[in-house]
Amino acid sequence: MKKFLVFVLGFVSGIVFALGLLFIVSSVIDKHDVNFFEQPGECLISKSSLKVFQVIEPNVALAVINGEWASGVYLLVNSEGKMYYDDQIIKLPAGKCFKQIGTYKYPTKDDSLKTVPVVKIM
Q: What is d(CA 74, CA 22) in angstroms, rounded to the nearest whole number?
């Protein structure tokens, strides 16, 4: 009986977690033009860190590789509850990589639209 109860509680908590994640993602989608892939892509970035230059939501930020603008801009998202701040260096844990999970379109200062990859540590 205990095993069944543990299974049911795990199942229910998984559903609650998934709904919470969908709520967070939907709040970002409502404010910005974000398109998510059905499945994560391959490892996109081989460098070991990204530097945040603009926080969009507490867990969503625009970042560049090691502060190098020429290398490109990425939208970095997480679902682990970590909060980003400006000029933060996001180091890649061993055995993980930055995988592309979608694209993000946003207006620049000169009112042109820029599309960048959405990445997540996986």
A: 21
Contact yes or no for 59/25 (Cβ under 8 A): no
> Is the torsion defined by CA of 112, 36, 117, 18 positive or negative?
positive
CA atoms of 58 and 2, how far apart (whole Å): 38
- Residue 56 CB contacts under 8 Å (≥ 6 apart), including other chains: 28, 31, 32, 62, 75
Residue pLDDT, tens place only, 64-81: 987 666 678 899 998 787
Q: What three-state secondary structure class fits 31?
A: helix
Is the pTM value of this prediction over 0.90?
no
> Cα–Cα distance between 33 and 36 in angstroms, integer?
10
Euclidean distance between CA atoms 16 and 60, whole angstroms: 21
Task: From 46, 45, 78, select the one nearest 61 (Cα to Cα).
Answer: 78
